[in-house]
Specification:
There is one protein chain. The strands form three sheets. Strands 6-7-8-4-9-10 form a six-stranded mixed β-sheet, with helices on both faces. The protein is of the alpha/beta class. The protein contains ten helices and 14 strands. The longest helix has 16 residues, at about 175-190. Helix 5 links the parallel strand 7 (about 160-165) and strand 8 (about 195-200).
């Protein structure tokens, strides 16, 4: 089981061999991971199982097998869980005829807040997220980015032990991305576990200290951001090199880099395909090999370094 920092602390949420299927489709398979307080990035291509993972962590759906536990002891139906988990979904379906203030105060009232406090807290969050002038506007009149900020205001209005944010930065411009990031780090500093899902690696790296990687319903890696970055970086990468003499260049690369595969295009002598487990070492060796061989290089293309390819390689390792 993957466990993040503070190994002696009680995990905020723990998945123990969790599988979730919808009919014959398995959305999440045999996932075991424990999360501690901090900002955690939930990363994977579209269809990786991120939304299913978040719904399981929120207690909205039950596992088909396995167990999800909160704070070391609470189960999905324990009443103590109700006000400790906040979820911001990527669903943009909101009651458009309500005003911003009506919807937000209504959500806070459903969470048990007195009317006066719900009104006060809603006003504070709308002001922080630049929506004070829109509080009496109907939701149907707002832009997608403004509605996204309303949902984020609801997610952060009340303190939570576990905050689950599904693609929270969608439709936000850079100013509000920074403000939402600040809200995440403030919550984490107060002891919350903030889980941020995305399919964009660079977006999550800028926010999270720890990462959980999903691919086709499988947990393929989990840990500190630097360790995961190294893991992704070290996945085998293919280079396709169009040059004047592929065989001469191949000889030099074999002598200078930890090459695991060399192939010369059978249709000619001008395309060389090379693979190395250490992509950085291969790229460092390539200029030296070109100079030593005297070969003229016209083009270098990479294969296997996109996010989907990297995740597929990691998934193959955990099968």
């Amino acid at each position: 089981m993957a466990t993040f920092a503070h190994p002696t602390a009680r995990p905020v949420v723990a998945f123990q061999r969790v599988t979730r299927a919808f009919g014959s489709r398995v959305a999440l398979l045999d996932c075991s991971v424990e999360l501690q307080p901090g900002v955690v990035g939930l990363l994977g291509p579209n269809g990786a199982g991120k939304t299913t993972w978040l719904n399981l962590a929120a207690g909205l759906v039950a596992p088909s097998s396995g167990q999800v536990r909160w704070l070391g002891e609470l189960g999905r139906r324990d009443p103590g869980l109700d006000n400790r988990v906040n979820l911001c979904t990527d669903n943009d379906q909101m009651p458009r005829r309500l005003t911003v203030m009506q919807w937000l105060t209504g959500m806070l009232r459903l969470s048990g807040c007195p009317a006066s406090y719900a009104w006060q807290r809603a006003g504070q969050m709308l002001d922080r997220l630049g929506l004070d002038a829109k509080k009496d506007a109907k939701l149907e009149t707002l832009s997608r980015g403004q509605r996204q900020r309303v949902k984020i205001a609801q997610a952060f209005a009340l303190p939570a032990t576990l905050l689950l944010l599904d693609e929270p930065l969608n439709a936000l411009d850079p100013v509000w991305r920074r403000e939402v990031a600040a809200l995440m780090h403030e919550a984490a500093s107060a002891g919350a576990c903030v889980v941020v899902s995305s399919h964009i690696l660079e977006e999550v790296e800028a926010l999270a200290s720890h990462l959980v990687l999903l691919f086709k319903g499988r947990l393929v890696a989990a840990g500190h951001q630097e360790d995961i970055r190294d893991l992704l970086h070290n996945q085998a990468t293919l280079l396709k090199i169009s040059c004047s003499d592929a065989r001469s260049l191949a000889r030099e690369l074999l002598a200078k880099a930890p090459v695991t595969l060399v192939r010369v295009d059978s249709a000619g002598n001008d395309v060389l395909t090379v693979q190395a487990a250490d992509a950085e070492a291969l790229c460092r060796a390539l200029p030296h090999a070109v100079l030593a061989s005297g070969v003229a290089v016209e083009r270098v293309d990479t294969q296997g370094d996109d996010l989907v390819s990297l995740f597929a390689a990691l998934a193959a390792e955990v099968r």
